[in-house]
Amino acid sequence: MDIVRNQQKEKMHPHKFTLWVAIGSLIMMFAGLTSAFIVKSNQANWKPVTLPTVFWVSTGVMLLSSLTIQLALRSFKDREMNKYRMLIGLTVLLGIAFIVFQWMGFQQLWAQQITFKGSGGGQFLYVIFGLHALHVAGGLIALAVIFLKGFFGKTKNYSAVPVEVAATYWHFVDALWIYLLVFFMILGKN
Amino acid sequence: MSETSTLHAGAVGHHDDHGHGHHEQSFISKYIFSMDHKTIGKQFLITGIVWAIIGGLFSVLFRLQLGYPDQTFPILETFFGHWAKGGQIQPEFYYGLVTIHGTVLVFFVLTAGLSGTFANLLIPLQIGARDMASPFMNMLSYWFFFLAGIVMLSSIFVHTGPASGGWTMYPPLSALRQAGDGQKIGTDLWLIAMALFIVSSLLGGLNYISTILNMRTKGMSMTRLPLPIWAMFFTAVLGVLSFPVLLSGAILLLFDRNLGTSFYLSDIVVNGEILPNEGGSAILYQHLFWFLGHPEVYIILLPAMGMVSEILSVSARKPIFGYMAMLGSMFAIAILAFLVWAHHMFVTGLNPFLGSVFVLLTLLIAVPSAIKVFNWLTTLWRGNIRFTPAALFAIGFVSLFISGGLTGIFLGNSTIDIHLHDTMFVVAHFHIVMGVASFFGMFAGVYHWFPKMFGRYMNNTLAYIHFWVTMAGAYLIFWPMHYQGLAGVPRRYLDKKGWVSFNQFADLDKMITVVSIIVFAVQLMFVFNFFYSIYKGRKVTTTNPWEANTLEWTTPINPGHGNWVGEIPEVHRWPYDYAKDGRDFIPQTEPVGANESKH
Ligand code: HEM
Ligand SMILES: [Cu+2]
Of B215, B255, B262, which has the smallest distance from its Cβ to A14's Cβ? Predict the structure, then answer.
């Protein structure tokens, strides 16, 4: 007996719904951090931060991965399992690449003497981008599980829900990244 | 997590009335790593009780110091070694005790212990669901809480002692390892424990919200939900939106402590050493903290309010007065809770104009609060009240909420708060309105739903003693603190002997300490009653012992995993049809009769 499915009044799958609430929660966390940035950027001795260009590369990678996961979801629904596996695998690779590029960005900033000393946008950047990367990494773990399930899982149960949940989450970390990028582009400079 | 479908067809079709039949599951999966919401609720409750004993004991210890600052208690040295040298509580230890007392009671007992217990127990049972939306996440929520507890507990045993920056953990003190023993490893452990705790709260809250919105049984529209469920819903929304902000504040604090960043630190000299930090703002932390901190006080209070509403209606044998007004006022409280945080910061140099905006918003909370009080009193008015222990505690809650709410209005005026801030007046205010009141809600809930949890009753005589001593004791302890605060006695001071003007309170402080010890002893009696009754209490022989309308009383006396044998019942009416058309009570499952009057 399926406790989830046997409910009479049900619009959205509870797991999908839970994800949306969780996204609300994550938004509050990053809203908290970026407001802290704004409050603090008015203090004395604040040093601005300019983003290294490698963050543009990671942005491209992130956008591309949103596309691949969307296509993967479509192929899953069309039961094109080979295409689905390939696209999910590609998304995982792009996600890893994203984190690598973020790391390179951190290293470049560090080399420019933007460190934990003193005060300024750089410290926030490490914390905020770092936390974002952690959330990407969390998504990668989920994607890796789904990827492996695509090979070994029983295919008789064709529920698209886990893939849909993963895709929604992935689009969210993508959108979050764009927000953070624009935020630092505009407010990081002053 | 798509494995929810494995949720025991067996448990639904098979259950045994006495809970002693042979188990299909192993002990581990039934009692330890259980995914049954009822078991998880009990786990939260029992863990909460353990924490309440620890936190309560700590308060007795620091009350000893406050009441008898010159006396030595050699036994303390036996137990606490260098922290109580010569039988006297040392300053660092005193701050550690205050800090852990506050943290544990606010977060571990009155947040996790209260919401964790009753949201888990009541949501599926009262909305008519077999379990939570994600039983697995629910289990994780408990185990993150458990882990947080282990880390917090271990901080008490490290050589330099637990965190001692107060439950609010303000920097710069909390950000500087050099500042004192409690700021060393103890504070890191405190932060880690809190991070784990926040994860636990979020997992729980997400689950509560999506369960309430998605898994109600047929006919259970939102306006037919029992009030505890609405309260848990608003509580979960508050938690899900405010805890992540505290988490971000805590992460920045961890960075400042361990990696040399300057989020909160600026131009600091500690013991003659000039620190390199610059440009930080300690006030920033207060904003992040109180953005959670104020909603947190309602996270603690709302579940108690919801359960009190239910219990008062059942005990008065009358419909709750103003159901929609109750919803409206809870909604207003939830919104306002996010807009008043700076009333904790009137003396931080807040812009006076902003200050008056926060005064206005703060005083607005009095309106929904007053509506709720009015509705509770009106529910009781001319009721045919059954003074069960649960009913007494619910009535006690209303009394405490009125008393503490009134002192809130004093504090909400920034002009008065400038005098009262950080005095014992604040301590009195929040202990009465939040601490004791929520405990009363929790006790009411335990006495009321104990038969559902364990299939037995608690002992009534002990329960009545528990109520009267706690009720009188709470007022005796906290009422005088208002006068101390008005006279300027600061909170968190180890010793006031240096102030001549405070000497007048020496005897009062002794009285408070003596009463605290008595009240603590009576709580131990409650704990005894609780555990004794689990095994030896009088057995419940009817499914609906309080003659209540809600769905949990339609389940078997000892429901198995899945709650109902066979179909989940359908709901046809709101839960408060008491004393209607000449009938004492009409359960929610009963179809509306042809010529029944509308409520
Ligand atoms: C009419 C309603 C209320 C008003 C106007 C009010 C106002 C205030 C103000 C202005 C303070 C800050 C005092 C200071 O530190 O100087 C305060 C402290 C506090 N209030 Fe209330 N309050 C109200 C109700 C409540 C309720 C219902 C709760 C909890 C359920 C609560 C819990 C607390 C706590 C925990 C603190 C102290 C925190 C600390 O500094 O450690 N209050 N209140
Ligand atoms: Cu407040």
Answer: B215
Mutation test of ligand 1: which of B429, B431, B442 has the most ligand atoms closer than 8 Å to its C-beta?
B429
Secondary structure (DSSP) of A101-146 = HHHHHHHHHHHTT-SSSS-BHHHHHHHHHHHHHHHHHHHHHHHHHH
Output the DSSP codes for B473-512. HHHHHHHHHHHHHHTTPBTT-S--TT-GGGGGGHHHHHHH
CA of B296 to the centre of ligand 2 (A): 9
User: How many residues can be counted in chain A?
Assistant: 190
pLDDT in tens, B121-174: 999 999 999 999 999 999 999 999 999 999 999 999 999 999 999 999 999 999
∠ Cα B96 B101 B103 (to 5°): 95
Q: Is B450 exposed, middle or buried (0-12, 13-18, 19+ CB in 10 A)?
A: buried
Instruction: Considering only the beta carbons, identify the residue of B137, B241, B279 that sits closest to A118.
Output: B279
Q: Which domain holds residue B328?
A: 32-585
CB distance B84 to B96 below 8 Å: no
The DSSP output letter for B596 is P
- What's the CATH number where B285 sits? 1.20.210.10
User: In chain B, which among 126-185 make CB contacts under 8 A with chain A?
Assistant: 129-131, 133-134, 137
pLDDT at A154 over 70: no
Looking at all shown ligands, the one closest to residue B370's CA atom is 1
Q: Which residues of A touch B561 (CB under 8 A)?
A: none
Burial (CB < 10 A; 0-12, 13-18, 19+), residue B147, is middle
Q: CA of A130 to nearest chain B CA: how many angstroms apart?
A: 11
B122 within a domain of the structure (yes/no): yes
Nearest CA in chain A to B290: A32
Query: Cβ contacts of residue A117 below 8 Å, gap of 6+?
Result: B260, B276
Regarding pTM above 0.90, the answer is yes
Q: Which of B434, B436, B478, B489 to mutate for ligand 1's pocket (most ligand atoms within 8 Å of CB)?
A: B434
Please tell me the distance from the alpha carbon of residue B430 to that of residue B400, in angstroms, as a whole number: 10
Protein residue whose Cα sits closest to atom 20 of ligand 1: B430
The Cα–Cα gap between B494 and B281 comes to 28
Contact criterion met (CB below 8 Å) for B163 and B189? yes
Asked if residue B445 lies in contact with residue B546, where contact means CB atoms within 8 angstroms, the answer is no
What is the ipTM score, two decimals?
A: 0.90
* Least CB–CB distance from B2: residue in A30, A36, A162: A162
Q: How many helices (H) and strands (E) does chain B have?
A: 19, 4
Residue B511 pLDDT greater than 50, yes or no: yes
Please indicate, yes or no, if residue B244 is contained in any of the structural domains: yes
> Rounded distance, CA B320 to CA B577, Å?
9
Mean pLDDT of chain B: 92
Domains and their CATH numbers in chain A: 16-40+52-187 (1.20.120.80)
Tell me if A129 sits within 8 A of A51, measured CB to CB.
Answer: no
User: Does residue B592 fall inside a structural domain?
Assistant: no
Q: Burial letters for B488-508: b for 16+ Cβ neighbours within 10 Å, e otherwise?
A: ebbbeebebeeeeebeebeee
CB-based contact, B362 to chain A, within 8 Å: no
Q: Do A7 and B131 touch (CB under 8 A)?
A: no
Distance from C-alpha of B545 to C-alpha of A54, rounded to nearest angstrom: 68
B486 CB burial (10 A radius; 0-12, 13-18, 19+): middle
Specify if B6 maps to a domain: no
Q: Span A99-120, mean pLDDT?
A: 91
Mean pLDDT of all residues in A135-148? 93
Query: Is there a contact between A25 and B206 if contact means CB atoms under 8 Å apart?
Result: yes
Secondary structure of residue B196 in the 3-state scheme = helix
How many domains in chain B? Answer: 1
* Ligand lying nearest the CA atom of residue B346: 1
